[in-house]
Amino acid sequence: MLDLLEEKNLFSLGYKLIASLDEAGRGPLAGPVVAACVILPAGFEAGDEKLKLIADSKKLNSNRREELFSVISEQFGGVGIGICDNKTVDKINVFQASFLAMKKALGDLRQKPDFVLLDGGFKIPNYSGEQKNIIKGDRLIFSIAAASIIAKVTRDRLMKKFHEQYPRYGFDRHKGYGTKMHLENLKKYGPCPIHRFSFGPVAKLK
User: Fold this and answer.
1) Geometric angle at alpha carbon 99, from 19 and 205, rounded to 5°
2) Looking at residue 46, what is its pLDDT?
3) N or C: which end of the chain has fewer CB within 10 A?
4) E strands, the chain, where?
5) Torsion angle, CA of 54/56/62/64, rounded to 10 degrees?
6) Rounded CA separation 165/156 (Å)
7) Which residue pairs, CB below 8 angstroms and at least 24 apart, start in 47-51?
């Protein structure tokens, strides 16, 4: 199980509400970028055995992620979701869209956190609150890993819905990533409205 040392240290410094952020969907050729934010209230303890299974979403299978999605939603102090669609990604680039999605996720919370932890090498630009970015935070920090699960499950569910609209591409299987199957279907059928036209493999087919 991932420990809570980072979070407990912040609580010991007097912070009452800690928000942890991660995103899913920077790399795909189609679909949105989704950020998720989870809240840890002071005194939080991962007592439930299921919470001990929390890990970086990429290390979990889809069934385990779905299971943990429910547990996190029920037992954490709050969950916020932020979504930037493919058109926004094309307009402002995927890096900035990720930060915008994070700000939306924070805005989706019922109350503003005292401190924000986020995965990655950069802090959220133009954010007025206190924050700390942690490289590989989704592998190291319990609450960031929890956020990664919420973001991944939320995005996967969206991509399954897009599959119903555009079944030829196989979005239910590859979730928009540039797999061999996706690239072959992209060449065969051309881009659809949720493809990212600023990404090379799609731009070539304009």
Assistant:
1) 140
2) 67
3) C
4) 17-24, 33-41, 78-84, 115-119, 130-134
5) -10
6) 15
7) 48/75, 51/1, 51/75
The confidence score (pLDDT) of residue 41 equals 79
Residues with pLDDT less than 70, the chain: 46-47
| Domain 5-155, CATH | 3.30.420.10
- pLDDT tens by residue, 122-181: 999 999 999 999 999 999 999 999 999 999 999 999 999 999 999 999 999 999 999 999
Task: Please state the domain extents for the chain.
Answer: 5-155
Q: Nearest-CA neighbor of 77 among 105, 117, 110, 34?
A: 110
- DSSP-based three-state secondary structure for 113: coil
> CB–CB of 157/81 below 8 Å?
no
pTM recorded for the entire structure: 0.96
Task: Give the Å distances, CA to CA, from 28 to 31, 186, 201.
Answer: 7, 13, 11
Contact between 194 and 166 under an 8 Å Cβ cutoff? The reply is yes
Among 158, 165, 174, CA closest to 82: 158
CB 124 within 8 A of CB 116: yes
